[in-house]
Amino acid sequence: MQAPLLAQHAAALSRGVPCGMLAWWGRTDFPDGTPSAPRLAQADWEAWYARLQQAALVPDRFVALDAVKAMTVPLRPDGPLPVAIADFRVATLDPAAPEQRAFIACGLLHGQWGTATPTYRSRTVTFSFDARFYFSNPGAPLPDSFDFDPGDGHGFRSVRLGEQLSVTYGNTDTVHATLRCGGARSSFDLLLGSQPAAPVADDTWQLQAANGCLGSAYVYRATGQTVLTRPMIIAEGFPGGYPCDYLYEMLNQHGTLEALRNAGYDIILLGFANGTDLLQNNAQVMQACIRQAMQQTPAPLVVGGVSMGGLVARYALTEMEARGQAHNTRIFLTLDTPHRGAYTNLCNQWFAHYFASAAPLAKSFSALLDSPANQQFVMAWFNGHRVQVSPLREQFTRALAALGNYPQQPRRLAIACGTGDGQRTQGAHAPALDWAGSPLAHARLWTLTEGDDNPGVIAEGCSLLADGSVANTLSCTSEWSWEGAPGGQNLYNYYSAMIAQAIGYGTVTTPIAQTCAVPTVSALDLPGSPFEAVPPPASGRSPFDDYICCETNQLHLQFTPRIKDWLLDQLTR
What we know:
Blueprint: H1 2-15, E1 22-23, H2 42-55, H3 65-70, E2 81-92, E3 99-107, E4 124-128, E5 134-136, E6 146-149, E7 157-159, E8 164-168, E9 174-181, E10 184-191, E11 203-208, E12 214-220, E13 231-235, H4 244-251, H5 256-262, E14 266-272, H6 279-296, E15 301-306, H7 308-322, E16 329-335, H8 346-354, H9 360-369, H10 372-377, E17 381-382, E18 387-388, H11 391-403, E19 411-416, E20 431-436, E21 441-446, E22 451-463, E23 473-478, E24 487-490, H12 492-503, E25 507-509, E26 515-519, H13 520-523, E27 546-549, H14 561-572
Parallel strand pairs: 1-2, 2-4, 2-5, 13-14, 13-15, 15-16, 16-19, 19-27
Antiparallel strand pairs: 2-3, 4-8, 6-7, 6-9, 9-10, 11-12, 12-14, 17-18, 20-21, 20-25, 21-22, 22-23, 24-26
């Protein structure tokens, strides 16, 4: 079956494809703009757009999905909402229909903390028909106008690119909207959320470090204050570039930030222009932020970060102390930071690299895995050929140790999103994903085997588009089966399943969707087995003066009301 498909593909390419798009791999039954086309949720639009990206014969002339989503970062979830439109002519290998139209539209929101489906945070929606969010074949003319029905009961209106349309809705949670253009139509759903949007930052600092690295600090002053009085700087996690409202809502779980602002703290959320850069480079952005705060107030600082941001803050403060530079920090705080390394499932790392040529989502994931920052904080890295500790991680840990390993002047506090009971949640070498039913693409994944003398296959598969650079199986050894360790959880198997489902061949099941990403022992920098109970802070086994674990394993960076109460007590005593 593979040889005829490849032959047809080669023949089509040799004839030339004037539209620049050839859909032959995976799902090709694009919504075509007819009345029978399905109504789309935002996730559907993104999946179909990724399929169009796969079909682009000249990728540099196609706006990648990651770039589209990045355009939404500055947009608030209660502000102008871009209507994203993809209108493409796509060639196929079907002699009966050698070319088809793909027409999809949706209201495009950026990701929001703690929810898989983002919601618009107002009953009055301002739809924006921004030309930047209209995507079509290279050289295709822009349409003169669209007909748009926002689903408010008043039917279609004529709108042009560059215009906006504001509509107020009554007591409904879902908006059903339809856009028409040139005889094609696409309907989509928009969810309205009751939770108000995060507040607008009182100030934004544009930061440039001495090394040229850039960042932005979003300042939310203490309740009733017009100047900084008690700054708390928290750096974002990997891969950086998060919207400021996303960061605010992440840290405001259970009203934590509101309680801190009411207690007199100014919240400064630090974002990096390139969060995938070396941690040492972004540490200089943190240092620039610390100096900016010190210029505005003599009050002592709280400095820290979430996940990777905690490592950036740790390096920044430690380096300043080693150089004799003042940082005026009284508390260093980290939330689920991988001080002893994060664990990204090695089977999923293999999956991303192996299927990178078959799916844009896998290619994007593999690029993040290979980024300098990720290599520095993961405990085990699949380099495309074998599992190893990245040389970048080894260099970072040596550099940090040479500086003193931790800042010594501030009190050190740590929060783990996992439990401290040492209880295993997943078995060693347990089935994690099964993608079967097609000879064109399939895979099976397992959790790690346990024991350094017990190698085992943890990933195997096949892809018609595999180029041979990544082997079709992966075997390795590990002292611990980290997937089942207590700790902050992630959904790497679920993401691999989404990639497989988007390709569209066969069926996918995930016996295990949620696994450990930041072991509790790593978040608290404790030596020894991850399957032992966490000792009390007074034991002296951790470099932190005090720490706390969640009562149950939470998703990475989620925490419970008990954590909020502990943090408020630590910061207000």
